[in-house]
C-alpha cells in the first residue's frame, strides 16, 4: 500500500508528485501557483495503474520519475482529469512517450542544465575509479588483506596525455571532455551526429594556453566513425540519449575493437551497452575496465556483472549532489507551475534565472513545446 502526503491542502490545483523530492523551494513554487501537492512517500516504483489511480478524476499536473512509464494510459488519464502539464524529474525522458503526450495536448517538461557539471564530475570519478582500481582496492583493504606496500599491488592505468573518446557531445559530454582535457591534458575525440564548435573551440583555446606556456597543446576532433573512436581512445565515456539508434550501441563487436586495457564509462542510460556482451568481454580481458552508473535492466544487474573485479558499479547517482537534485526539483515544479497557470515557455537553455527569485513567469524546459505550438516567453 503506497503512502501519500498532502502539502498546501487548500490549493485549488491538484498536483501529483510520485516521489519525495529534496529541498523546499519547489514546494513554495507550487504553493505560489495555488497548487495542492500530493506526494507519494513510498520508495517503491509506482506502477502505471497506481499512478493512474493517483491522478484520479481531477489533476492539474504531475511530476514523475525516470523509473516510471509515462505513456498513452497515463497521458489519457491526465488529460481526462483536466491535466495541463507533466514534468519528468530528470533531464533524460526515454521513459516518456512524448508523442502520446503531444496527442493528448500535454506538455512534457524536463530538468536540463542543472545536472551538467555534477554528472560530468561523476563520470570523472568513475573514470579514475576504473583506471586506478578503487573498488577492488577498497574491498581488499576492508577484507583485511593489506599486508604491506608492494611494487606490483593494484597496478592501474595512467591517463595523463592520453586520448578520451566521448560518445554524445551534448552538455554533459562536453563538460566531461573539458574536465579531462584541462585536468589531465587528454586529447579529445568525439562522436556525435552534429559537430560541436563550442567544445572544439574551448579545447583549442586551452591548447593555445598550454602552448603559450611552452607545453604541448591538447586537441579535439570529431569523428563520424564510431569505430575509429573505439580503436583510438584509451577511455570511452558514454553521454548519448537512449533511443532506437543508441540501444546496444556498445555491443560485442564494438567492444572487441577497443584497446585491451581501455576504460568504458557509462553515465547515460544502461541499455546503450549490451550488458551480457560487456560481462563476457570483461571476463576475457581482465585489463579492460568499465565503470557504470546506469544498467540495462535497472535496478537488476545482468548475471555475472557484480562478480567482476574489473567493473565499478554505482546505483545511478551521477546527478546526486544536493544542489543538483534540489535544482531539478525547482525546475520540475517551475514547469508545472507555469504550465498550469498558462504561462509561456522559456526560450533559452540557461536555467540560472529559475534558481533565484523572482521566478520568471515561464516553464523552464518543455520538450514538445514546438509540436504543441506553445507560446515563447518574451522578457517584459
Ligand atoms: C537524468 O536526469 O536523466 C539522470 O539520469 C538522473 O540522474
Summarize the structure.
This protein is of the alpha/beta class and 380 residues long. The protein has helices at 25-32, 48-55, 72-80, 98-103, 116-131, 134-142, 171-184, 197-212, 226-232, 252-257, 275-284, 322-340, 369-372, and strands at residues 4-7, 13-17, 35-40, 61-64, 85-88, 108-109, 163-167, 187-191, 220-222, 235-238, 263-266, 289-292, 311-313. The strands form two sheets. It has a seven-stranded parallel beta sheet with strand order 9-8-7-10-11-12-13, with helices on both faces.
Assign a percent range to the helix content: 25-40%
Number of strands: 13
The top level CATH class name of the largest domain? Alpha Beta
What is the CATH topology of the largest domain? Answer: Rossmann fold
Span of the ends, CA to CA: 48 Å
Q: Strand order within the widest sheet?
A: 9-8-7-10-11-12-13
Compute the number of structural domains.
2
Beta-strand percentage? 5-15%
Give the SSE order as H and E letters: EEHEHEHEHEHHEHEHEHEHEHEEHH
CATH-level-2 architecture of the largest domain: 3-Layer(aba) Sandwich
| Overall SS class | alpha/beta
Please tell me what the overall shape is. Answer: globular
Overall residue-averaged pLDDT value: 98
* Major sheet characteristics: 7 strands, parallel
- Chain oligomer state: single chain
Question: CATH H-level name of the largest domain... which superfamily?
Answer: NAD(P)-binding Rossmann-like Domain
Amino acid at each position: 500500500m503506497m503512502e501519500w502526503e498532502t502539502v498546501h491542502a487548500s490549493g485549488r490545483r491538484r498536483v501529483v508528485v510520485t516521489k519525495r523530492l529534496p529541498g523546499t523551494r519547489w514546494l513554495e513554487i507550487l504553493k505560489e501557483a495555488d497548487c495542492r501537492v500530493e506526494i507519494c512517500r513510498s520508495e517503491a516504483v509506482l506502477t502505471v495503474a497506481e499512478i493512474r489511480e493517483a491522478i484520479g478524476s481531477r489533476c492539474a499536473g504531475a511530476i514523475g520519475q525516470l523509473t516510471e512509464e509515462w505513456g498513452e494510459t497515463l497521458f489519457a488519464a491526465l488529460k481526462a482529469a483536466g491535466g495541463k502539464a507533466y514534468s519528468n524529474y530528470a533531464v533524460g525522458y526515454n521513459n516518456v512517450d512524448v508523442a502520446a503526450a503531444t496527442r493528448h495536448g500535454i506538455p512534457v517538461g524536463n530538468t536540463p542544465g542543472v545536472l551538467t557539471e555534477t554528472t560530468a564530475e561523476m563520470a570523472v570519478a568513475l573514470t579514475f575509479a576504473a583506471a586506478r582500481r578503487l573498488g577492488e582496492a577498497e574491498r581488499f583493504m576492508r577484507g583485511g588483506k593489506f599486508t604491506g606496500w608492494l611494487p606490483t599491488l593494484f597496478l592501474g592505468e595512467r591517463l595523463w596525455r592520453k586520448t578520451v573518446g566521448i560518445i554524445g557531445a551534448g552538455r554533459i559530454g562536453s563538460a566531461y571532455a573539458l574536465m579531462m582535457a584541462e585536468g589531465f591534458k587528454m586529447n579529445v575525440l568525439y562522436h556525435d551526429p552534429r559537430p560541436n564548435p563550442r567544445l572544439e573551440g574551448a579545447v583549442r583555446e586551452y591548447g593555445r594556453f598550454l602552448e603559450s606556456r611552452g607545453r604541448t597543446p591538447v586537441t579535439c576532433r570529431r569523428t563520424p566513425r564510431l569505430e575509429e573512436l573505439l580503436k583510438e581512445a584509451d577511455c570511452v565515456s558514454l553521454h548519448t540519449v537512449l533511443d532506437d539508434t543508441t540501444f546496444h550501441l556498445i555491443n560485442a563487436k564494438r567492444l572487441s575493437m577497443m584497446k585491451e586495457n581501455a576504460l568504458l564509462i557509462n553515465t547515460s542510460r544502461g541499455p546503450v551497452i549490451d550488458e551480457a556482451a560487456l560481462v563476457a568481454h570483461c571476463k576475457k580481458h581482465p585489463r579492460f575496465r568499465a565503470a557504470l552508473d546506469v544498467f540495462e535492466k535497472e535496478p537488476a544487474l545482468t548475471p555475472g556483472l557484480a562478480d567482476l573485479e574489473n567493473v565499478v558499479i554505482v546505483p545511478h547517482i551521477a546527478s546526486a549532489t544536493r544542489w543538483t537534485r534540489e535544482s531539478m526539483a525547482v525546475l520540475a515544479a517551475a514547469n508545472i507551475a507555469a504550465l498550469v497557470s498558462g504561462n509561456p515557455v522559456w526560450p533559452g537553455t540557461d536555467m540560472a534565472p529559475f534558481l533565484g527569485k523572482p521566478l520568471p513567469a515561464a516553464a523552464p524546459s518543455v520538450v514538445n513545446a514546438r509540436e504543441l505550438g506553445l507560446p515563447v516567453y518574451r522578457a517584459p
